[in-house]
Design brief:
The protein has 150 residues and is an alpha+beta fold. Helix content is 25%, strand content 20%. It is built from 3 helices and 8 strands. A two-stranded antiparallel sheet has the order 1-2.
Length: 150
């Protein structure tokens, strides 16, 4: 995990030392979106935008904590991958799997092809090409609305 974790990270630790068996007792807050992604509801993020929590004195990526809570430890040399294309926010254990670093990077590259920088799905109905760049119509409309309200 990045050493530069958000300073005001929510600490779910107890003053009592917790055993390995009960370190996964904590439920992380989330909301459910239209794709059944569990969107991590705390504002604590690392430099890359991934949700982080502190539990039992240990810093966790929120998605890794959820994976281990529901599926057990991540095997040595493996990473938790998002299969839902919502790699920074989703903590739904049904949308998480393990894989190699190479698989994880390939996933991210593939996901970026079909999502704008904000995360809107890019398809023929809500995007268009302009000067060699794929433009998200949703983001464009939001920027236009924001500029008109100023």
């Amino acid at each position: 995990m990045n050493d530069e974790v958000v300073e005001n990270m929510t600490d779910f630790s107890d003053s009592v030392t917790r055993s390995d068996e009960d370190k996964y007792e904590r439920d992380l807050p989330y909301t459910v979106d239209h794709k059944n992604c569990w969107i991590f509801a705390l504002g604590s993020r690392d430099k890359g935008g991934y949700g982080v929590v502190k539990i039992g004195g240990r810093n966790w990526y929120a998605h890794r904590y959820q994976y281990e809570k529901h599926n057990g430890p991540v095997p040595e040399g493996m990473e938790v991958r998002h299969i839902c294309k919502n790699q920074r926010d989703c903590v739904n254990p049904n949308h998480l799997t393990v894989g190699t670093h190479a698989q994880n990077m390939a996933d991210i590259k593939e996901h970026k092809k079909s999502l704008c920088s904000v995360g809107h799905e890019l398809n023929r109905q809500n995007s268009y090409w302009f000067a060699g760049t794929l433009i998200c119509k949703i983001c464009k409309a939001q920027k236009l609305a924001a500029s008109k309200s100023e």
